[in-house]
Amino acid sequence: MDSDFPDDVVESAFEAITTGRIERESVEQAYLANLSYVLDYVESLIKELPNRTVVSADHGEMLGERAWPVPIRCYGHILGIRTPELTNVPWAVVDGEPREMTDEGVLEFIPDTDGAVEDRLEALGYR
């Protein structure tokens, strides 16, 4: 794979931006290229699915935005910082033909009696 980095250098895109090895715009363009690539497949998949479909993804990244109370530019995920870039999750609902729902194939439903799911969602910043 071609890379702008020597083989002995391993750093994240965020480190590369902060050290000036690459421009922020290059990382943004890479994110957009990746999104464009994936959305082509999502569009094809949606056409094949016969009913309502939800398309979602992970949250975004900080790419140099300023976040209160930190007066500096932030990159990646910073523990304890909550910004729209880190907490907003893409969510799209695409309606299709309704179909009958059955419980065929469902082996067992295990309720969240110990609160583990809620604890995980809260730890991720969704509650």
Which descriptors apply to this entry?
127 residues, alpha+beta, two-stranded antiparallel sheet, two-stranded antiparallel ribbon, 4 helices, 4 strands, flat
In words, what does this structure look like?
- The protein contains four helices and four strands; from the N terminus they run H-H-E-E-E-H-E-H.
- It has 127 residues and is of the alpha+beta class.
- It has a domain at 13-99.
- Strands 1-4 form a two-stranded antiparallel ribbon. Strands 2-3 form a two-stranded antiparallel sheet.
- The chain is flat and about 55 Å long.
- It starts with 12 loop residues before the first helix and ends with a helix.
- The mean pLDDT is 79.
Major beta sheet summary: 2 strands, antiparallel
Rg from C-alpha positions?
A: 20 Å
Structural class: alpha+beta
- Shape summary: flat
Element pattern in H and E:
HHEEEHEH
- Uncertain stretches: none
User: Going across the major beta sheet, what is the strand order?
Assistant: 1-4
Number of strands: 4
Q: Kindly state the mean pLDDT as a whole number?
A: 79
Quaternary state of the chains: single chain
Topology:
Blueprint: H1 13-18, H2 24-48, E1 53-56, E2 62-67, E3 70-76, H3 84-87, E4 91-94, H4 116-123
Antiparallel strand pairs: 1-4, 2-3
Report a brief summary of the structure.
This protein has helices spanning 13-18, 24-48, 84-87, 116-123; strands spanning 53-56, 62-67, 70-76, 91-94. The protein has a two-stranded antiparallel sheet.
